[in-house]
Amino acid sequence: EKLFIKWFEGLLDEATKELMNKPRCGVPDRIRSGSSSIRQKRHWPKKQLTYKIKKYTEDMPKSDVDREIARAFQMWADVTDLAFVHVKNQSADVDIDILFVSGEHNGEHGSCNRFDGLGHTLAHAAGPIDGGDTHFDEGETWTLDSGQGTNLFQLATHEFGHSLGLGHTRHVKMAVMYPYYEYQPDFKLDKDDIEGIQVVPRLKFNRLKIDSIHFSLNDSYKNAF
Q: Which of 37, 61, 110, 119 has a CA between 20 and 30 Å from the CA of residue 25?
């Protein structure tokens, strides 16, 4: 086994080795056709979605978490006809459950149900077909309005894109749905993100046509999320 690993590593160039060691999203990249922010197979059958935060991070007050999560959902609401409602009753049945968890944890993510501590996988989210639940790694340091640690608002905006049916985009590094995380002082949805979400069925302007994309391990990326 060790000989095989050594042989395999010899086939990889330095850029690929570096990429494989960087933090990244628990949502896998796949080669697909479709939107620039790659669409997943299903969509929500309604326009008002409910969510609750089942488990909070200890890195900031709950009120700050509530605000940043609401801001992240609003980014997508502003460019679609979706509305998001925060339900604070922990026993209520909602569309999207949000949790800050560590290590092994339950969920509808299949193989994406383990976090690894600081760095590497920062968060993951299920698409509409799997309920849209979003998990953040409590092993990270979550921050507000800062490039230190991992910015909750920016990371949550990316993950909720997955919850709404988007995959990763490769071509536009400034896009929210670019798979690798880098803090952006002037954070906003890119045209690529907007066109991607607006072609998801049942959302407005679904007549837009965008290009197919492909994923390559040899591309140079920043930190992944």
A: 61
Going by C-beta distance under 8 Å and a sequence separation of 6 or more, which residues neighbour residue 214? 31, 170
Average pLDDT value for residue range 140-165: 95
Domain boundaries along the sequence of the chain: 2-198
The pLDDT tens digits for 35-78 are 445 555 468 999 999 999 999 999 999 999 999 999 999 999 99
Annotated binding site: 25, 59, 93, 109, 116-117, 124, 131, 133, 135, 137, 140, 158, 162, 168, 177
Domain 2-198, what fold?
Collagenase (Catalytic Domain) (3.40.390)
Which residues are CB-neighbours of 39 under 8 A, at least 6 positions away?
32, 165, 166, 167, 196, 199, 200
pTM above 0.70, yes or no: yes
Binding-site members for Zn(2+) are: 25, 109, 124, 135, 158, 162, 168, 177
pLDDT at residue 8 in the model: 45
- Rounded to an integer, the average pLDDT of 5-33 is 50
Helix ranges, the chain (H): 2-10, 14-20, 62-77, 152-163, 191-198
pLDDT in tens, 111-121: 446 776 677 78
- Classify 86 as helix, strand or coil: strand
Residue pair 99/136 in contact by the 8 Å Cβ criterion: yes
